[in-house]
């Protein structure tokens, strides 16, 4: 379907987000329910915040469905033992998943392999669904590390989402600074927020269903 494209979504406001306190414990308003003992972690690695926004939306959807979830940067998480399920996300740069996400997956592989895990990547920019080689953009931008991590963690699912890029934001690291100044980067890195909130929410709802009501897969 060459030339296929979708409309960028700039008009959506983020869903209310679970508040993560300084002590690392999520909190939310409203009465406690029987599901409050369930905890789902949405851990993420980000450079410029786009992936954090996706993680927060996923956590908000899970929480809205009665499965309390908290979005936290991987750097802040030392232990996943207290979580019933983990969703791990990271941005893709130069075909690779951000290193902190990969390191997190490797460091916690034993604990992660023992609980339901999902992976997501915040990747391609633009509105084209098919690249110049006729490949599905969401498949061709799958981070290189996903094969290894699939072997390691046996995730229940994985997903690539469109990302966001603000050329006015200060580059992070020398590599990003150099790439941004390459003439080819102007075409390869269209500016804008291309995050597909409908797709993100639908994916989160699918996870909620698969977790059942107690943060574990239904019997
Ligand atoms: C220098 C640079 C390189 C990028 N390389 C890739 C890439 O290889 N694959 C991809 O899917 N997206 C790539 N992107 C897009 C980012 O993954 C996208 O902007 C992402 O949503 C950023 O997430 P963050 O704000 O959480 O860091 C690149 C962006 C920049 C600025």
UniProtKB/TrEMBL annotation:
SUPFAM superfamilies assigned to the protein according to its UniProt record, in alphabetical order:
Flavoproteins
Q: Which residues does UniProt assign to the signal peptide?
A: none
User: What Pfam families does its record include?
Assistant: Flavodoxin_5
Gene3D superfamilies, alphabetically? 3.40.50.360
Chain segments annotated as transmembrane: none
Superkingdom, according to UniProt?
Bacteria
**What is this protein's record name?**
Flavodoxin domain-containing protein
Species per Swiss-Prot/TrEMBL record:
Fodinibacter luteus
């Amino acid at each position: 379907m060459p030339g296929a494209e979708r409309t960028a979504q700039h008009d959506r406001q983020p869903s209310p987000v679970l508040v993560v306190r300084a002590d690392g414990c999520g909190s939310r308003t409203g009465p406690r329910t029987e599901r409050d003992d369930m905890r789902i972690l949405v851990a993420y690695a980000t450079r410029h915040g786009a992936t954090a926004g996706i993680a927060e939306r996923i956590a908000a959807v899970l929480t809205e469905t009665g499965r309390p979830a908290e979005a936290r940067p991987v750097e802040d998480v030392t232990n996943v033992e207290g979580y019933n399920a983990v969703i791990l996300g990271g941005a893709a740069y130069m075909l690779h998943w951000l290193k902190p996400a990969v390191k997190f997956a490797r460091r916690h592989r034993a604990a992660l392999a023992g609980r339901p895990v999902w992976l997501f990547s915040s990747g391609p920019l633009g509105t084209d669904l098919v690249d110049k080689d006729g490949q599905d953009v969401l498949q061709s931008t799958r981070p290189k590390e996903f094969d290894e991590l699939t072997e390691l963690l046996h995730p229940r699912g994985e997903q690539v989402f469109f990302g966001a890029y603000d050329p006015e934001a200060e580059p992070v690291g020398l590599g990003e600074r150099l790439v941004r100044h390459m003439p080819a980067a102007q075409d390869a890195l269209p500016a804008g927020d291309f995050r597909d909130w409908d797709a993100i929410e639908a994916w989160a709802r699918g996870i909620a269903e698969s977790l059942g009501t107690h943060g574990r897969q239904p019997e």
